[in-house]
Amino acid sequence: MKPSALTIGKFDGVHAGHARLLRETIAAAAERGLEPSALTFDPHPAFVVAPERAPQPLTSLDERRMLMRELGIKRIFVLRFTGEVARLSPEEFVARYVRGEMNARVVATGENFRFGHQQAGDVRVLAELGQRYGFETRVIAPVMRRGVLVSTSGIRALLGSGAVARAARLLERPYAISGEVVRGFGIGAKQTVPTLNLRPPAEVLPLNGVYITRTEDCENRRRWNSITNIGFRPTFGGEDLSIETYLLDALGSPAPTRIRVEFLRRVREERKFDTPELLKRQIGSDVGRAQAFFRRLAKWTRPALEYAGDVH
To answer: How far apart are CA 278 and CA 232, in angstroms?
Structure first.
């Protein structure tokens, strides 16, 4: 392979900390005339070495690759993480993959980077191996946002509490889920409002409740302002988790078969109403709040605030 500037990691979420690491890798590649590259893992190593502690992912492998390419990474090597890979010593990992498969001449990592059997390797070990195998090691400092360390676990905790706007600051974009549009129960169209129903994905879901969202048709790239409910439809005695999105703009045609929903702000918790009419009235109130939110959002001009993390 062409000599590379390489970064290594799980990159789950491709958050602001990952983005800095990827940009530093791209800058190093430009300095040295190298190919900006990333090595990531599938599945998450924890599923192999400690499956009982394996976290639910923030992003699918496809989305990880898409986000890394959007930042400017040209070559992405996905290493299937197996028991054999987990047993490699730090030097064996470097010889086989870092210097071997990826032909790395520069390796950029975060301060807490660990690798090799039982995480025996750290940035000091990587630098020593770099001197031996002929690559430079660059260590990138952690990223803070408003005094908060950016981390995948921190973002997962924010989503679990419904704090999607704060999570967006750490991600540098709204948190989003994608999936197939599935047939609902027919209740909304008859008794409240019609919705698009999304098949629950394998990735992390925000806390149950009602959110201001944006919805995109994955095939035709149409976008709508929307509100989305995650929950169990308690007004109608629901038992299965559902993700129902109500579009604030006309749907048009063709009807989408796969959608992507971005979560901008939490409106309220999901709750049971005595009648469908009361629920419909509440949805009308939710729509009003969402429309006011989007009017305020339209006044902002700084691109970095498009994720709406600072719009109240």
So the answer is: 17
**Tally of CB atoms within 10 A around 14:** 26
pLDDT tens profile 133-178: 999 999 999 999 989 999 999 999 999 999 999 999 999 999 999 9
Domain membership flag for residue 180: yes
How many separate domains does the chain show?
2
**For residue 189, how many other CB atoms are within 10 A of its CB?**
11
| Residue type (1 letter), 55 | P
Question: What residue type is 12 in one-letter code?
Answer: D
DSSP string, 5-43: EEEES--TT--HHHHHHHHHHHHHHHHHT-EEEEEEEES
| Residue ranges making up the domain that contains 241 | 148-305
Same domain, 154 and 300: yes
Residue 187, helix vs strand vs coil: helix
- For residue 311, the number of C-alpha atoms closer than 13 Å in the C-beta half-sphere is 27
